[in-house]
Design a protein that fits this description.
Structural class: mainly alpha
Order of helices and strands: HHHHHHHHHHHHHHHHEEHHHHHH
Strand content: under 5%
CATH architecture of the largest domain: Orthogonal Bundle
Number of helices: 22
CATH superfamily of the largest domain: ABC transporter involved in vitamin B12 uptake, BtuC
Number of domains: 3
Shape: globular
Distance between the termini: 61 Å
Radius of gyration: 26 Å
Largest sheet: 2 strands, antiparallel
Helix content: 55-70%
Length: 489
Amino acid sequence: MAERLRLFNPGALVWLGVAALAALLSALALGRSFSADPALDAIIRLDGVAPRILVSILAGAALGFSGALLQRVLRNPLAEPATLGIASGAQLALVLATIHAPLWLATGREAIAATGGLAAVALVLALTWRRGLEPVSVVLAGMMVTLIAGAIAAAAILADGRYMMSLFIWGGGSLAQQSWGPAMGLALRLGLAIIAGALLVRPLTLFALDDGAARSLGLSLTRVRLAAVAVAAGLAASVVSEVGVIGFVGLAAPALARAAGARSPAGQLVWSPVIGAVLLWATDGAVMLLEARGIAGLPTGAATALLGGPLLLWLLPRLRMIERPPMRDRTARDLHHPRPRLALAGLFLLALVLVLAGLTLGRGPQGLHLATGTLFADLLPWRLPRVMVAAAAGAMLAAAGTVMQRVTANPLASPDVLGVGRGQGWGWPWCCSASTCPRPVPGLPAPRRGLPRCSPSSWRSPAARVSVPNGCCSPASPPRRSPMRCWWR
C-alpha cells in the first residue's frame, strides 16, 4: 500500500500529463485529412493510423517489461534489449534470412528473430559470466556484440544495393502499419510474457539479496536468470521482428518507474510497461505530427534515441562501478606470446597475402579472376590508393586505440566505443548538406583531384563533367542541392 501511495506523487501526475499529450497527438493524427477522397481517408485511418497507435503502445509496453526483467535479474540498471545486443542480434538474423532464405520469413519470422536475439544475449552472458555479470562488463560486452552485429547487418544490406535499402528504414524502428496483424501479434506475445513474469515475481524478490543468501533460501539463480532472460529476449525479438530496432525505451521505462516510487519487483513489472507505452506512444505521436508538417521519413526508433542519451549520462554516475585497475600496462604480462617474433612474422605474411589479393583478385563474368600483365597494370592505379588508404586508416585507428587504452586503463577503449566515430558521422552529413562552399571543410577529407572538378564552374562545362567517370558531376548524376555533396560521396 505504501508503494501505491508513493506512485501518486507529482511524478505520476507528470506521466498522466504525458499520456494526455499522447492522446491529443493521436487524435490529431486520426483527424488529419490524407486525401480528397473520404473513402480513402477512412481506409488510411482504419488500417494505417489506428493500428500504428496501438502498435506504439504495445511495443513500448513490451520493451519496458523486457527492460524491467533484465535489469532486475542481472542487477544492472543499464540492462535492456539494445545494450545487451538482443535487438541487434534479432535484426541481423532477420537481415540474413531476408537475403539468403526469404521463404523462412513467411512462417518463421518470430523464430528467426528470437534465435538471433537469444544468440546475442547468450554470447554477452558467456563473456561476462566469470566476472559475475558485473554491470559495466555486461554493458561493454553488449556494446561490442551490438557493434559487430550492426556492422555485419549493414554490410549485408549494402552488398545487395538499392534493393535492400528499405531494410535501413525498417531497422531504424518505423511504426508505419498497413493492417492490424502486427498489433494483434504483439498483444498476444505481451500477454504471454506478462503471465511468465507474474510467475517469476517471487524468485525475483530474492535477487535483492546477494547470491549466497539467495541460494541459502533455495533459489536456483542460474535457472531463474536464464528463464527471465529468455522471456525478455523473446519479447524484445518479437518487437524487432514487427517494427525494427527501437532503443532506450527498455532502459528509460524501468528507471523512470523506480524514480516514480516502484521499488518491488511486482511494482516495477507493472509500472515499467505502462511508462514504456506512454513514452513510445507520445514519441510516435510527435513523429506523426512532424509528418503532417511535411517532415517525412523520420523513424520513431531514431527519435527515441534522443531520450536515451541524456538518460545514460544520468545513470552512469549512479552505477556501482568496479574498482579501476592500476594505471599500468598489463598487456605484456597477461597477453605475452611465447614466440613474439614468429607471431609478428605470421601477421606480416598474412597482411602481404591480403594486399596481393586486394590488388589482383576480382570478380569477372566467369567468376573470380586473377589480374596479371596488362590487366594488372590497368587496375593498379585504381586499387593501390584504396589499399594504401585502408592500411593507413588501420594504423591510425590502432594508434588511437592504444593511446585511449593506456590513458583510460580500459582494454575495451577505442574510438568507436567512446563515440568518436559516431560523433563524426553525425556531424558529416550536417556539414555537407548545410554548406554551399565548394572548398573542403577543415577536418573533413576531400579528394585532391576530384574536388576541383566538382566546382560550380565545372558543372557548366560538358568536357569537365565527362572527365569524371561515374562521378557526382557526370551527366548521369547532376548536382542536386549542395556542391559539398560532390566530394563526400
